């Protein structure tokens, strides 16, 4: 069966990673969470004192950017690919609200994007990748055979994220989750470097009122149209 790359873009917390993981599992592809890479850089700047009074010390970040090492490793216990920063598993740390609040300091920096986009492109050269993010169908894999663009109403996304954080024992309130999502929507769509836009050839899925099964069926339908019926490997 022909192997392809699948690009999934969309707003924060609209189920991109759930869908990407389902597709990767079904197709025996590799799932790559590009947002985790931006989160890892955000964690780096927090931990290394490169945020002063809520502002990024860009000069110092650019000085060390080449030496920051970000990668993914399969974890045998969680059975998932987890994010590593400079030799340390940071999967749990990058999911917290502090990183969510700081990630839009680093994601608009063109040099950060150039570094991460280069890594992401390299991960897709062999095909068989499902990658989610904001600029995957437009910048990272402009030639991806399947591009999905996902949306959902902000209140629905905030409630899903709130429940997910609560479920993991994180202390949060719904209002601040919604505010964070709305601010990130604004930052993601308005930034100059690689903003979130729908690629002209992307298939849009608004999942506000869809179950994850329904969404998966729609997405798989798009994949099947491109590569034919998926047979069990
Ligand atoms: O998907 P996420 O919420 O984990 O992404 C974290 C942040 O990284 C988000 O605010 C936008 C940014 N991001 C980006 O700019 N480009 C990507 N390809 C993926 C994420």
Description:
This protein has 233 residues and is of the alpha/beta class. The protein has a single domain (5-226), classed as P-loop containing nucleotide triphosphate hydrolases (Rossmann fold), CATH 3.40.50. It has helices spanning 16-27, 34-47, 58-64, 97-106, 110-123, 136-140, 154-167, 174-190, 212-227, and strands at 5-10, 30-33, 51-52, 55-56, 70-75, 80-85, 88-89, 129-133, 146-151, 203-206. The strands form 3 sheets. A 5-stranded parallel β-sheet has the order 2-8-1-9-10. It has a 3-stranded antiparallel β-sheet with strand order 5-6-7, with helices on one face. A hairpin with a 2-residue loop joins strand 6 and strand 7. Helix 7 (154-167) crosses helix 8. The longest helix is centred in the last third of the chain and has 17 residues, at 174-190. The relative contact order is 0.22. The structure holds 2'-deoxycytidine-5'-monophosphate. 2'-deoxycytidine-5'-monophosphate (DC) binds at residues 12, 34-35, 38-39, 103-104, 107, 133-136, 184, 188.
Describe the structure using short key phrases:
three-stranded antiparallel beta sheet, Rossmann fold, binds 2'-deoxycytidine-5'-monophosphate, alpha/beta, 233 residues, 9 helices
Secondary-structure map:
Layout (H helix, E strand, L loop, with lengths): L4 E6 L5 H12 L2 E4 H14 L3 E2 L2 E2 L1 H7 L5 E6 L4 E6 L2 E2 L7 H10 L3 H14 L5 E5 L2 H5 L5 E6 L2 H14 L6 H17 L12 E4 L5 H16 L6
Helix pairs in contact: 1-9, 2-4, 2-5, 4-8, 7-8
Bound molecules: 2'-deoxycytidine-5'-monophosphate.
2'-deoxycytidine-5'-monophosphate binds next to helix 2, helix 4 and helix 8.
């Amino acid at each position: 069966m022909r192997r392809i790359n699948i690009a999934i873009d969309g707003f924060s917390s609209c189920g991109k990673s759930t869908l990407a993981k389902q597709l990767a599992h079904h197709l025996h592809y590799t799932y790559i969470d590009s947002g985790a890479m931006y989160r890892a850089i955000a964690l780096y700047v927090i931990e290394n004192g490169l945020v002063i009074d809520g502002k990024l010390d860009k000069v110092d970040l650019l000085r060390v950017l080449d030496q920051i090492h970000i990668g993914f490793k399969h974890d045998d216990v969680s059975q998932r690919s987890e994010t590593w920063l400079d030799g340390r598993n940071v999967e749990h740390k990058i999911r917290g609200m502090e990183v969510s609040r700081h990630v839009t300091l680093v994601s608009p920096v063109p040099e950060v994007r150039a570094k991460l986009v280069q890594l992401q492109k390299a991960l897709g050269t062999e095909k068989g990748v499902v990658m989610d993010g904001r600029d995957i169908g437009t910048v990272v894999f402009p030639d991806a055979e399947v591009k999905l663009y996902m949306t959902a109403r902000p209140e629905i996304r905030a409630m899903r994220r709130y429940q997910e954080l609560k479920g993991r024992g994180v202390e949060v309130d719904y209002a601040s989750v919604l505010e964070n999502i709305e601010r990130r929507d604004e930052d993601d769509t308005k930034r100059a470097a690689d903003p979130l836009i729908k690629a002209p050839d992307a298939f849009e899925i608004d999942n506000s009122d869809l179950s994850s099964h329904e969404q998966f069926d729609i997405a798989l339908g798009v994949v099947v149209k491109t590569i034919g019926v998926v047979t069990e490997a």
